[in-house]
Amino acid sequence: MQVIDAKDTIFGRAASQIAKKLINGEEIQIINAEQFVIVGNPEQIVQRYLTKRGLKHKGNPELSPKWPKVPHMLVKKMVSGMLPRKSSRGKDALERLMVYTGNPKNMDENLKLEKVSFDGLSKHITLQDLCKRIGYTG
């Protein structure tokens, strides 16, 4: 089992490396999921996720895609998008992923991902800020 601290980590790059490790059979636990960083114009990022949340299936609205507002569930949804969801190995890989908001079990980080740290200079938004702006109240 490997623990990843998401503090000041670029989300897209980290998610692709996490998906690769899950496919290879490793068990991953992510702590501080609300502190992932998404680089780009914050207004455009928020608008993109609001648009995704507003998509409705015309024939049967219950079949519409579900996009969570909670940070740890949003991380799991986005990592699952990088896994082969229809195959058994993709489903098994998603079961090996645990995502936590904060650090509930006082775990120490023991896995370093390559080239995913954020320098803090470019425009960005944290996952917690994004979730609050799309309707999360926690």
Would you give an account of this structure?
The protein is α/β, with parallel strands linked by helices and 138 residues long. The protein has a single domain (2-133), classed as Alpha-Beta Complex (Ribosomal Protein L13p, Chain: A). 37% of the residues lie in helices and 14% in strands. It contains 5 helices and 6 strands, in the order ββαββαααββα. The protein has helices spanning 11-23, 42-54, 71-80, 88-95, 127-133, and strands at 2-5, 9-10, 28-31, 36-39, 97-99, 124-126. Strands 1-3-5 form a 3-stranded parallel sheet. Strands 2-4-6 form a 3-stranded mixed sheet. α1 packs across α3. The radius of gyration is 15 Å and the shape is globular. It starts with a strand and ends in a 5-residue tail after the last helix. The mean pLDDT is 90.
